[in-house]
Amino acid sequence: MAEYSGVLVCGEVVEGKVSSLTAELLGCSRKLADSLHEPAMLVLVGSEVSNLASQGAALGADKVFVADDALLKEYQTDAYLSVLAKLVADTSPRYILFGQSAIGRDLAPRLAFRIGAVLTTDCIELGVDPQTKGLLQTKPVYGGNARAIFTSPSFPQLATVRQKAMSPLQPDASRKAEVVTLAVKVDPAVMKSKLLQTVKEEAAGIKLEDAPIVVCGGRGIGSADGFKQLEELARMLKGAVGATRPACDSGWVPAHVQVGLTGKIVTPDLYIGVAISGASQHMAGCSGSKVIVAINKDPEANLFKEARYGVVGDWKQALPAFVNKVKELLAG
Ligand code: FAD
User: Fold this and answer.
1) CA 328, CA 18: separation in Å to the nearest integer?
2) Hey, how many other C-beta atoms are within 10 angstroms of the C-beta on 77?
3) Whose CA is nearest to atom 33 of ligand 1?
4) Which of 122-126, 197-201, 220-224, 255-259 has the lowest mean pLDDT?
5) Lowest-confidence range among 54-63, 93-102, 144-153, 220-229?
6) Residue 47 CB–ligand 1 contact under 6 Å
7) What residue owns the CA closest to ligand 1's atom 8?
8) Which residue puts its alpha carbon closest to atom 31 of ligand 1?
9) Quick one: which of 128, 124, 161 has its CA closest to 26?
């Protein structure tokens, strides 16, 4: 029977850097590895990724595997899967972590099936069972109304982890990792799909997930024009605009600004929720905000229960007054 050891993070590279989600996974893997007294490991698959091993080390990895090949330049399911399946067979990691990203969601279930292992998707917390060394995987269930902890008696155990659920370590350039270059043998014949085009998401201003201030609008905003007022406030505060699902579904704002269970997770210093009821599926994406401000005409709206400050009233009156005050403060 294989001797399982270590926590392997399947890394992603965005614009020539280890992605922020991978950095978060490495922060988590460091904690898990320390409590197991086993190594934290990272695998980077791509083209010209060898020089990124030091970033992995600085972010907490003890060992970095690199699979560097021109054929791996763009993400390709079958090619990436064959590299990972071979690495896992050769190294027997105890846990294998992916981001809950487009790539992670595609690769993790396929790898789990290929190696006959269990996978828990969309985790928000991970821990170690001290008795069994099983991975304790917490994820929201019942539409975000409850949390469940999953584990399994078999190894390896796979999990995908939500963006912003874990904290990255402060990068430490003096940390060193053992770097292992994998011999890549990708047979182009196994690549059943082909990437035709990559379209970069148009994003003006600061990214929603990274914004320190988020001004979020709900169904009560009523129109795309209404959202323009939220955009003005977000611009003034150097923040970003988010929205609830009904506002996105109505086409007032693009789907990529949806905050919640099936949207983005935001953890800003300040979240201003305007005309939002505060349904649990929405709160799943913003309850980690440091300060929540709610503006709603219904004093019973759930968002008030989560908010530190609240304005009961029509946003059409409250928001312009708020914007004017912010303008005044910024000018003075
Ligand atoms: P509503 O619940 O209709 O609330 C509108 C609010 O605006 C009300 O509180 C009202 O009092 C207030 N209002 C109206 N007019 C004014 C005014 N003039 N001034 C001030 N206040 C006013 N939702 C998400 O947001 N994100 C998700 O990721 C998400 N995922 C989901 C996943 C599943 C599986 C399911 C079942 C649902 C999901 N939802 C999600 C939907 C979620 O359940 C709620 O329906 C949604 O969050 C409600 O959005 P809302 O607050 O904009 O609308």
Assistant:
1) 41
2) 16
3) 143
4) 197-201
5) 144-153
6) no
7) 277
8) 281
9) 161
